[in-house]
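Q: Start with the shorter request: fold the first protein.
A: Done. Sequence, then structure:
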Amino acid sequence: MKTTRSLSAQCVLALSVAALCSGVLLAQPLPPAPKAHLTDVTPKPGFFNEPAIAVNPADPQQLAVAWQINASVAYSTDGGQSWKIAEGTAPKNYRVSGDVSITYDAAGHAILCYIAFDKLGSNNYWAQGATRNGIFVRRSLDGGKTWEPDAVTVIGHESTPGIPFEDKPWVVADTAGPHPGNLYIGWTQFTLSASDLIFSRSTDGGKTWAKPIKLSSVSGLPRDDNGALEGFHGVVGPDGTLYTIWDDRDGIMMAVSHDGGVTFSKERRIINAGPGYFGISGVSRSNGFPQIGMDLRKDAQRGAKNGGNLYVSWSDYSNGDVDIFVASSADHGQTWSASVRVNNDPIHNGNDQFFQWMAVDPLSGAVNLVFYDRRGDNQKTSVTLARSTDGGKTFTNYTWDPELFEADGDFLGDYLAITALGNKTYAAWAHQTSEEAKDQRGRRTRTTLRVGSADFN
């Protein structure tokens, strides 16, 4: 059975004090996330990581969380207090499925996107010896409880020599403006000689997908490492403008569409950032892929002081150890502020914060981030929630999960997940346990999928 814990502020604080006395918590304890509630969704540990989470704007009590491996979904109908695992999300005709993303469309349908393949190519050089693979979408017309039996192929390849490998897709829903109901997916296509950012759109709720186009005019290197084009993310503004971003070898790129994803501006670098991949002790791989969000409140006349602001988050080791950063734009991405350091531990202290994910609350405009935090001794890992209510100028840090773990060889994924609505935030992460399990690919692993909620009302 899944484990559910309601952690009041007093309970979290008590745990923090107890851990401090035993010398295992952060050097300077953070305040607890308000009205924190944690749930272990997976009943036993396994290869569970790289989550995505979404809340239904049409029904805020309805949420869905996805994770790998294989592509799995759980749903909640009580605002994240309890979760049930859905059936029929992973494809039966592929050996492996993962790299999940999930969203709710304008009709309130849950949309799950994932990759599927039989066997990876060479290590990090996925197109070298690639087997059949592709990107697929599955729909739930009841918000995540049940899923249509047939997946829709966005792009697919059979096992023939020289095929590409499609990697790390992310699905974005257009819920307002002139293109309501559109769905967009961007991803990295690895070939033997290059990596490119590819894009497709659906105008019928995910039933069919347009022929993919390239967002990148300059290719990246062909390995899943520094120099590749990776980490697609996007957001749709109230006027229907689609803003997309990704990493290249020197920073964060942006391309914009004003016609519902039919055409895009030429990509340009908006932020100079450190390398997208970096080493962190105990973690098999780590990166600082960017996310973009927008304050969807339209203008200051309606009380939205920062309405229309765009925000981009990422992480890198420009300060020596790995930190989390946010930059903002008040002119639709034309110019960007200096980066703001999100984690508030002492700079240059040698402790890493990593695997950030960002969500901007569409109702309040608050900027929310979740990340792994090692500010104590750079070994023991906690989960921190950071929040800004002044347009990304300053961030308050909160302890979200006080149960520390020390990563020891497990694959924790490439990212965490967060969403927000009406000053309530929800996040998901891989939590390492002391119990080992053997996954279907023969790896020893011990992570559970944990979901947390916090309420700032």
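Q: Next, the second protein, separately.
A: Sequence, then structure:
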Amino acid sequence: MTGKATTCYIEDGCSLHLEIYSHMGELAPVYSSEKAIGLVLGTGNLGAKLTANDSQKALFMSRDGGLTWRTVRMGVHIYEIGDHGALIVIARKN
């Protein structure tokens, strides 16, 4: 998010964990659009495992189909992709 690389490496037991399924749909799942090739959005956290603590989660985005990821916003958000990926709408989830 600040343009700096993380110090999270799989060799150290750290990796990106994304919400694939959320209890009662409380969190937005990993999302992509067939019209926005390579663009993927997902909520999750860095660490040894996926945390249940929403305050430690962030919105992550990949532009290369999930090969590399960037932190977009801290916290839990809902999101939508439009106009072949030229428009991304993000709103904080309360």
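Q: Describe the second briefly.
A: Strands lie at 15-18, 31-32, 40-47, 58-62, 70-74, 77-82, 87-92. Residues 10-92 form one domain.
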